[in-house]
Amino acid sequence: MKSAESLEAPRDDVAPASRESPAHPSPRTPSFVRGMRAAFVFLTRVPVGGFPYARADWSWATAHFPLVGLVLGAALGGTFVLLRPVGALPAAALTIGLSLLVTGAFHEDGLADTSDALGGAYDRENVLRILKDSRVGSFGAVALCFSFVTRAALLAELHGSRPVEAIGAVALVGSLARAVPLWQMVRAPYATEQGSKSRDVVRAEPSRAAIGTGYPLVLGGVLAWCGVLSPLRLVAAAIACLVVGAVTEWRYRRRVGGITGDFLGATEQLCEIAIFAVLVWRS
């Protein structure tokens, strides 16, 4: 199931090294803007085109990962609202299934590989060896089932909410969950050598992470100002993400001395679950 090394490494058909063309950068569009398009190429299977991308474009793509989550989340939230007449849980399951098609199960792949590696190995060498194995083991299979079922069940809890609340919540989940791995990319060293195809994307700078974090912050502020979500829930969601990010980073450092792309994908999935749980918590 190793079609990509989760958040850090793009699929072979969109690898930066194979698509970049430093000699032919966009003559008019700044790399900051081009990076938005490159972020969709990197994280999804949406055919946005735009090739060739320069190295600077791929470097800026990291800053816009949460924007990708925001747009996808809004679209998925709208899909869930349209499907609600079929029932809460079926609508949620179909929506999560659609997200897998759009992203190519990008982050789910990282969760499966991370679960197999951390659950099935006791030393650094074997953890890294399992991460490179294309097969899915029992730990990975269980993790995938847990992620899919839990997210579908939590999303189904939004069945009775207003359309704007459901769409806003799913958009926030998609955006905020993709902001947390950015700070792990800034803070933690990489445990493995990075190939040329991903080097321009994975070297996140604090400025990129700060810009990426701005997307869910602005979205959360708008949702709170419009009365769609309460400020208390938004703060709780942010705290939940901080906890997940801190705990997972500590675990990654302890086991292999740093992060990998698969680890970042696992963090994103766990953050989605944590945010969903906070947003549907019945007080």
Compact summary:
This protein is mostly helical. The protein contains 13 helices and no strands.
Number of helices: 13
What is the helix content? 55-70%
Largest sheet properties: none
**Mean pLDDT score:** 89
> How many domain regions?
1
Multimeric status of the protein: single chain
Report the end-to-end length measured between terminal Cα atoms.
39 Å
What is the N-to-C order of secondary-structure elements (H for helix, E for strand)?
HHHHHHHHHHHHH
Number of strands: 0
Structural class assignment: mainly alpha
Shape category: globular
**Low-pLDDT sequence parts:** 1-26
Strand proportion, as a percent range, falls in under 5%
The whole-angstrom Rg is 18 Å
How would you describe this protein?
With 283 residues, the chain is mostly helical. The protein has one domain (63-280). Helices cover 69% and strands 0% of the residues. It is built from 13 helices and no strands. It has helices at residues 16-19, 31-43, 55-61, 65-83, 88-103, 106-120, 124-131, 138-156, 163-187, 199-202, 206-225, 231-256, 261-280. It is globular. The chain starts with 15 loop residues before the first helix and ends with a helix. InterPro entries: CobS. One of its GO terms (cellular component) is plasma membrane. It is a multi-pass membrane protein. This is Adenosylcobinamide-GDP ribazoletransferase.
